[in-house]
Amino acid sequence: MRPSRLMACVAALICAVTTHAGAQSPRRVVSLNLCTDQLALMLADPGQIASLSALASDPRSSAMADQARGFPANDGSAESVVLAQPDLVLAGTWTTRATVDMLTRLGLRVEIFAPVNTLDEARANITRMGALLGQETRAQTILDQFDQRLTRLRATPGPSPRVALYYELGSTAGRDTLPGDILDAAGMTNIAAEKGLAFGGALPLEDLVLTNPDLILIGRPYGGHARATELLTHPVLTASGKLRLIEDGASWVCETPHLLDAIAQMIALRQDWSAAQ
C-alpha cells in the first residue's frame, strides 16, 4: 500500500473511532492471533468482529474453526488491519510483532494477550476479553459453566498413570505449562517432573524409554513428511504399545472451554488404561 493511502485510511479510522468514542463496546474488532480469535468468537456479538486471523478457520489448530469460517480473514499485515477500520485490535505476545508495532505507532488501540500456562490463567483471559468487548455477563456465564464442569472432571476417580507428552524433535511439556495442567486436572502424572523439566524441554528418546512411562502421548502430525516428526514413529516407540494419539490437539491450545474437552479425553484414556491393567 502507498504511504499516502495508508495515512488516508488511518485518518478515516481516527475519525470513526472519535465519532463512536462514547460507545461502551468496540464495534469493529480485528484479531491477529489464534487464541484471541477464539476468545472473540466465544464472547463477541457477531457484528463486533471485523476480521480474524487465517488460523482461526484451520481445524488443525483452531477448536472453533467451523464458527470462524463465516468471518473475513486478515493476512496479519498492518495494511489489512487499517483498511478494516477497527476500534480494537487483539494480538498475542509473540505474533505479528511488526504489525503490532506499526499499529501502536499509528495510535490504534491494541490489546495484547500473553500465552497461558494454567487453567486459572485461561479463566483470567476469558474475564479480560469479556471486559474488553463489553460482554462481562456472557464471560461470567461461560466461567460459571467452566468451573462447574471442571469440578466434576477433577472428581473422576481412578489410578494415575505416569505419562509423557512427546513432541517434535524429542521435546516435552512440563507441569508448569497448559498441557501439563491439563494432565494434572485429568489425574495423570507427568514424567517431566521426574526429569526436572517444570516447563518442559528436550527429552531424548533414550531418557524417555528409561523413564518407562505408562503412556506416551503424541499429537497428530500435519500431512506430508517432516524430519521433525520422524522420532515419533521410531520403532522403539511404535513397538512399545504405549503410544496414544491426541486426536483433537486444537482443544489443548487456547483459553476456551474446549480445554475441558481435552481433560475429558485424557480422563477417558486414563480409564481405558486402568481397565486394561
UniProtKB/TrEMBL annotation:
InterPro entries xref list: ABC_Transporter_SBP, ABC_transptr_periplasmic_BD
Signal sequence segment: 1-23
A Pfam family hit: Peripla_BP_2
Gene3D superfamilies: Nitrogenase molybdenum iron protein domain
Highest rank taxon of the organism: Bacteria
Record carries keyword Signal: yes
The keyword Signal belongs to this UniProt entry's keyword annotation: yes
Keywords: Signal
Domain Fe/B12 periplasmic-binding residues, every copy: 28-277
Name of the protein described by the UniProt record: ABC transporter substrate-binding protein
